[in-house]
Design goal:
mainly alpha
Protein backbone atom coordinates (compact mmCIF):
# COMPACT_ATOMS: atom_id res chain seq x y z
CA UNK A 1 0.00 0.00 0.00
CA UNK A 2 1.43 3.35 -1.07
CA UNK A 3 2.16 5.88 1.69
CA UNK A 4 0.33 9.18 1.11
CA UNK A 5 2.21 12.51 1.49
CA UNK A 6 0.28 13.50 4.62
CA UNK A 7 1.09 10.12 6.16
CA UNK A 8 4.79 10.70 5.50
CA UNK A 9 4.54 14.10 7.20
CA UNK A 10 2.71 12.54 10.16
CA UNK A 11 5.37 9.82 10.48
CA UNK A 12 8.10 12.44 10.42
CA UNK A 13 6.41 14.58 13.09
CA UNK A 14 5.90 11.59 15.40
CA UNK A 15 9.49 10.41 14.87
CA UNK A 16 11.06 13.77 15.67
CA UNK A 17 8.65 14.42 18.58
CA UNK A 18 9.63 11.15 20.21
CA UNK A 19 13.33 11.96 19.74
CA UNK A 20 13.54 15.75 20.26
CA UNK A 21 10.99 16.57 22.99
CA UNK A 22 13.61 16.39 25.75
CA UNK A 23 16.00 19.14 24.52
CA UNK A 24 13.09 21.41 23.58
CA UNK A 25 11.61 21.07 27.08
CA UNK A 26 15.01 21.54 28.69
CA UNK A 27 15.73 24.83 26.92
CA UNK A 28 12.33 26.26 27.90
CA UNK A 29 12.61 25.13 31.55
CA UNK A 30 16.21 26.35 31.83
CA UNK A 31 15.29 29.91 30.91
CA UNK A 32 12.15 29.85 33.06
CA UNK A 33 13.46 28.29 36.28
CA UNK A 34 17.19 27.57 35.96
CA UNK A 35 19.41 24.52 35.47
CA UNK A 36 18.23 22.12 38.18
CA UNK A 37 14.48 22.24 37.36
CA UNK A 38 15.41 21.99 33.66
CA UNK A 39 17.44 18.86 34.32
CA UNK A 40 14.51 17.41 36.28
CA UNK A 41 12.19 18.16 33.35
CA UNK A 42 14.64 16.53 30.93
CA UNK A 43 14.79 13.33 33.00
CA UNK A 44 10.98 13.17 33.38
CA UNK A 45 10.36 13.84 29.67
CA UNK A 46 12.91 11.17 28.69
CA UNK A 47 11.07 8.64 30.85
CA UNK A 48 7.71 9.74 29.40
CA UNK A 49 9.12 9.33 25.90
CA UNK A 50 10.17 5.79 26.75
CA UNK A 51 6.66 5.12 28.07
CA UNK A 52 5.17 6.61 24.88
CA UNK A 53 7.20 4.16 22.80
CA UNK A 54 5.63 1.31 24.77
CA UNK A 55 2.07 2.69 24.65
CA UNK A 56 2.10 3.47 20.92
CA UNK A 57 4.17 0.36 20.17
CA UNK A 58 6.86 2.38 18.41
CA UNK A 59 10.21 0.67 18.21
CA UNK A 60 12.77 2.94 19.90
CA UNK A 61 15.66 3.93 17.67
CA UNK A 62 19.26 3.37 18.82
CA UNK A 63 19.61 7.17 18.83
CA UNK A 64 16.75 7.52 21.29
CA UNK A 65 18.09 4.76 23.54
CA UNK A 66 21.53 6.35 23.75
CA UNK A 67 20.23 9.92 24.14
CA UNK A 68 17.69 9.05 26.82
CA UNK A 69 20.12 6.81 28.67
CA UNK A 70 22.74 9.57 28.93
CA UNK A 71 20.09 12.16 29.84
CA UNK A 72 18.73 10.06 32.72
CA UNK A 73 22.23 9.07 33.91
CA UNK A 74 23.86 12.52 33.88
CA UNK A 75 20.65 14.29 34.90
CA UNK A 76 20.05 11.88 37.77
CA UNK A 77 23.56 12.52 39.13
CA UNK A 78 23.13 16.30 38.97
CA UNK A 79 19.74 16.16 40.70
CA UNK A 80 21.50 14.73 43.77
CA UNK A 81 24.16 17.46 43.78
CA UNK A 82 23.66 20.93 45.24
CA UNK A 83 25.02 22.55 42.07
CA UNK A 84 24.65 20.78 38.68
CA UNK A 85 28.07 19.88 37.32
CA UNK A 86 27.81 16.81 35.08
CA UNK A 87 24.87 17.49 32.74
CA UNK A 88 26.88 19.97 30.67
CA UNK A 89 29.17 17.10 29.66
CA UNK A 90 26.24 14.94 28.48
CA UNK A 91 26.46 16.06 24.79
CA UNK A 92 30.18 15.22 24.74
CA UNK A 93 29.72 11.88 26.51
CA UNK A 94 26.77 10.91 24.33
CA UNK A 95 28.55 11.56 21.03
CA UNK A 96 31.80 10.02 22.24
CA UNK A 97 29.91 6.98 23.54
CA UNK A 98 27.92 6.53 20.33
CA UNK A 99 31.08 6.90 18.21
CA UNK A 100 32.98 4.38 20.35
CA UNK A 101 30.12 1.89 20.40
CA UNK A 102 29.64 2.24 16.63
CA UNK A 103 33.39 1.74 16.14
CA UNK A 104 33.29 -1.43 18.24
CA UNK A 105 30.19 -2.70 16.42
CA UNK A 106 31.79 -2.01 13.04
CA UNK A 107 35.02 -3.80 13.94
CA UNK A 108 33.01 -6.72 15.39
CA UNK A 109 30.75 -6.71 12.28
CA UNK A 110 27.60 -6.18 14.34
CA UNK A 111 24.69 -4.78 12.24
CA UNK A 112 24.29 -1.57 14.28
CA UNK A 113 24.15 0.82 11.30
CA UNK A 114 21.70 -1.50 9.55
CA UNK A 115 19.43 -1.51 12.62
CA UNK A 116 19.62 2.28 12.76
CA UNK A 117 18.49 2.56 9.15
CA UNK A 118 15.69 0.05 9.75
CA UNK A 119 14.44 2.15 12.70
CA UNK A 120 13.71 5.08 10.36
CA UNK A 121 10.17 5.67 9.06
CA UNK A 122 9.57 3.33 6.12
CA UNK A 123 8.93 6.26 3.79
CA UNK A 124 12.58 7.40 4.01
CA UNK A 125 14.33 4.03 4.42
CA UNK A 126 16.87 3.39 1.67
CA UNK A 127 17.00 0.00 -0.02
CA UNK A 128 19.88 -2.09 1.28
CA UNK A 129 21.23 -5.47 0.27
CA UNK A 130 21.39 -6.50 3.93
CA UNK A 131 23.41 -5.88 7.12
CA UNK A 132 26.68 -6.40 5.20
CA UNK A 133 25.96 -3.88 2.45
CA UNK A 134 29.48 -2.47 1.70
CA UNK A 135 28.06 0.98 0.91
CA UNK A 136 26.58 1.25 4.39
CA UNK A 137 29.83 0.07 5.96
CA UNK A 138 31.83 2.82 4.21
CA UNK A 139 29.32 5.45 5.30
CA UNK A 140 29.53 4.16 8.87
CA UNK A 141 33.25 5.01 8.99
CA UNK A 142 32.41 8.58 7.93
CA UNK A 143 29.78 8.80 10.68
CA UNK A 144 32.25 7.54 13.30
CA UNK A 145 34.79 10.21 12.35
CA UNK A 146 32.06 12.88 12.37
CA UNK A 147 30.81 11.84 15.84
CA UNK A 148 34.31 11.95 17.34
CA UNK A 149 34.91 15.43 15.92
CA UNK A 150 31.52 16.61 17.17
CA UNK A 151 32.13 15.19 20.67
CA UNK A 152 35.38 17.18 20.87
CA UNK A 153 33.55 20.33 19.84
CA UNK A 154 30.89 19.77 22.54
CA UNK A 155 33.62 19.31 25.14
CA UNK A 156 35.04 22.67 24.11
CA UNK A 157 31.58 24.31 24.32
CA UNK A 158 30.96 22.80 27.78
CA UNK A 159 33.57 25.22 29.15
CA UNK A 160 32.56 28.19 27.00
CA UNK A 161 28.74 28.64 27.04
CA UNK A 162 25.96 28.31 29.61
CA UNK A 163 24.03 25.08 29.93
CA UNK A 164 20.86 26.31 28.19
CA UNK A 165 22.73 27.56 25.13
CA UNK A 166 24.80 24.37 25.06
CA UNK A 167 21.71 22.14 24.92
CA UNK A 168 20.07 24.39 22.31
CA UNK A 169 23.21 24.39 20.17
CA UNK A 170 23.51 20.61 20.55
CA UNK A 171 19.89 20.19 19.44
CA UNK A 172 20.29 22.43 16.39
CA UNK A 173 23.70 21.15 15.32
CA UNK A 174 23.28 17.52 16.36
CA UNK A 175 19.63 17.11 15.37
CA UNK A 176 20.02 19.08 12.16
CA UNK A 177 23.18 17.33 10.99
CA UNK A 178 21.81 13.93 11.99
CA UNK A 179 18.58 14.62 10.12
CA UNK A 180 20.52 15.64 7.00
CA UNK A 181 22.68 12.52 7.26
CA UNK A 182 19.73 10.16 7.62
CA UNK A 183 17.43 11.83 5.10
CA UNK A 184 20.25 11.93 2.53
CA UNK A 185 21.05 8.22 3.00
CA UNK A 186 19.32 7.09 -0.23
CA UNK A 187 21.28 9.72 -2.22
CA UNK A 188 24.57 8.80 -0.52
CA UNK A 189 24.05 5.09 -1.16
CA UNK A 190 23.11 5.68 -4.81
CA UNK A 191 26.31 7.67 -5.33
CA UNK A 192 28.35 4.91 -3.71
CA UNK A 193 26.69 2.35 -5.99
CA UNK A 194 27.54 4.43 -9.08
CA UNK A 195 31.16 4.70 -7.88
CA UNK A 196 31.34 0.91 -7.44
CA UNK A 197 30.09 0.37 -11.00
CA UNK A 198 32.67 2.80 -12.40
Amino acid sequence: MKTLPWQKIKQGIIYFFLNLATPATFYWAFHEWGPKPAIGFAVVVSLLQALSHLIFKVRPSPIFIFASGFTVLFGGIDLWLKTPQFFRFEPFAQNFGVASFTLFATLARLPLAYELVKSLPKSIQPKLKGPDDPRLRRLTWIWIFYLYVKSGFYLYLAYRVDLGDLILFRTLLGGGSLGVMLLSLPFQLRNQQKSDKN
